[in-house]
Here is the input.
Amino acid sequence: MRALSALILSTALAMPVAAPALAEDAMTRTISVTGTGTIEAVPDMATLMIGVTTQADTAAAALAANSEATDAVIARLTASGIEARDMQTSNLSINPNWTGYDSSTPAISGYIATNFLTVRIRKLDTTGAVLDAAVTDGANTLNGLTFGLADPEPAYNEARKEAVADARAKAQLLAEAAGVTLGPVVSITEGGAMMDPAPMYRQDAAAVPPVVGGELGLSANVTVAFEIAE
Here is the structure.
């Protein structure tokens, strides 16, 4: 009985010694790199932020004048082909117009109402005409114009493919420099996709400049781990 107990104890003590050796044998040697892919794409839509600013003696009068002017701008945008789903009020404010800051008794000299509209322009070649139409009927502030893609996912997918190819090329270079053979992919992790800042300008809408969309840069990053083949 004592011999059997000693044998069981001896076996139990021997197990932890063998486990690290097995784990070490199972470890996979890898090369991990990060690849980047960039695609240039021509924008197919624009996002415009225009504003209507009015001033009057009372807050109610300023708001009424602003509403009338904004309604006219919306009507002209609609006539220019902009759908209701592509127009949204992004900011509406009424503020007192303070004067006399350089004295000890500042006073309110009327009220200023501002209404900003965010407008999506799906036909890029009509951007200039839309701007002109908005200014004609009362929009007096151009707060931003950016260009983008209605569906950027296909371009992002191409950038992702280029990122994986870039990662493979880097890993192959490192493997050759280290004197090893590159094996199969062990894991791929996407680091994110982004669009370069689109052209933007902001100025008084009284002088609308020519509009040129240019190109957009879309990039993607991936981290790929490759096995080092024996």
About this structure: Strands lie at 30-41, 45-56, 87-99, 107-121, 141-148, 181-195, 203-204, 216-229.
